[in-house]
Specification:
Length: about 300
């Protein structure tokens, strides 16, 4: 299955690995997802919120490092006004890069404002398509609302990313298969799949968590079902097992999202413990060693490009 996914990846999206500069700009969260280390209920982490200038300066250094996509990710922090976020997006767009947002659930009007400010892509994992499990793990959150957000983003013609967690407590094989079918029905442009890694300061600290193999299987099947999309080798895969990222690149993945947030801040963006942080130079060297090339453009999803042309 892994080698089939690798061939389908090669045939459809080629040997280039696209790099995305990940900026984790705030870990202040109103939600309390049981699996997540930055949930509101975790009093042990230091909370931070970067200013617009700090975010812009990180984006500038990403551009200088030769990265052509900036991913702005945060917890569900309502501390930034829509106008603040639009100002940040406009500033980054002046650097002539693609902007991906991953800031959770917002209203249609907010998503529209970000798009008009220049945001190109949006990343919002559905986490699981098992609604019962979702409601158990994400108290106060509503699966239908999250799904509605994905539809809104699609309607606004964002290049759309979603994905799921693998190995949640009582998650079944059937439900993971449903996740893949959901990705196909949604016709997403990017899918990120990651193993669930229990965090010691959360209610799920004693859970078993996901395995790299199962996460790779879901990822590989996703590649077989959606040949043209972008698929990241996720940081959680590398965290679970050194070399996990390489395995992912050889089982269907074509994207890596190096973290460029200053490390003293980023350690507080602990979705799960010991989040891997590989230097950019090492990531590039590993890509070349696999006989692949490092992307030199924005790395737009081919699935998205084909839709936009039709
Ligand atoms: N607030 C944004 C970003 C969430 S953090 C949003 O709601 O989209 C990004 C992703 O980290 C989440 O979508 C989730 O899938 C993942 N994550 C959270 N806790 C995790 C854990 N313990 N192990 C692995 N991945 C986790």
């Amino acid at each position: 299955m892994f080698s089939a996914a690798d061939s389908v990846r090669k045939e459809n999206v080629g040997d280039t690995v696209h790099l995305r500069a990940l900026i984790e700009f705030s870990n202040i969260c109103k939600n309390n997802c049981l699996y997540c280390g930055i949930r509101a209920g975790n009093a042990k982490i230091k909370r931070y919120r970067l200013t617009a200038d700090e975010i812009l300066s990180l984006a500038k250094s990403a551009k200088e490092m030769g990265l052509h996509t900036i991913v702005l990710q945060s917890a569900e922090d309502l501390g930034y006004k829509t106008s603040d976020l639009c100002h940040i997006i406009e500033g980054i767009k002046r650097l002539d890069v693609a902007v991906t947002l991953s800031i959770g659930e917002r209203t249609y009007a907010e998503y529209k404002a970000y798009k008009e400010a220049g945001a190109d892509r949006y990343l919002l994992r559905i986490e699981t398509t098992d609604k019962y499990l979702y409601h158990k793990l994400d108290p106060k959150m509503d699966w239908e609302r999250r799904f509605a957000c994905l539809l809104a983003l699609k309607d606004l013609k964002y290049e759309l990313g979603t994905g799921s967690l693998i190995g949640l407590p009582s998650q079944t094989i059937e439900s993971m298969a449903e996740d893949i079918l959901f990705f196909k029905r949604l016709d997403a442009d990017m899918i990120g799949v990651g193993p669930f890694i229990p965090h010691p300061d959360t209610p799920l600290k004693d859970a078993k968590g996901g395995t790299l193999t199962m996460a790779l299987k879901v990822m590989a099947l996703t590649r077989l079902m959606l040949p043209n999309i972008n698929i990241p080798a996720t940081t959680a895969m590398e965290t679970l097992e050194a070399g996990g990222r390489n395995k992912a690149l050889q089982s269907g993945a074509n994207v890596i999202m190096p973290n460029i947030t200053l490390s003293d801040l980023s350690k507080n963006y602990a979705l799960y413990p010991n989040k891997s942080r590989t230097p950019l130079a090492d990531i590039k060297a590993a890509i070349l060693k696999l006989g692949r090339t490092v992307g030199t453009d924005r790395g737009q999803s081919i699935a998205y490009r084909l839709k936009s042309c039709s």
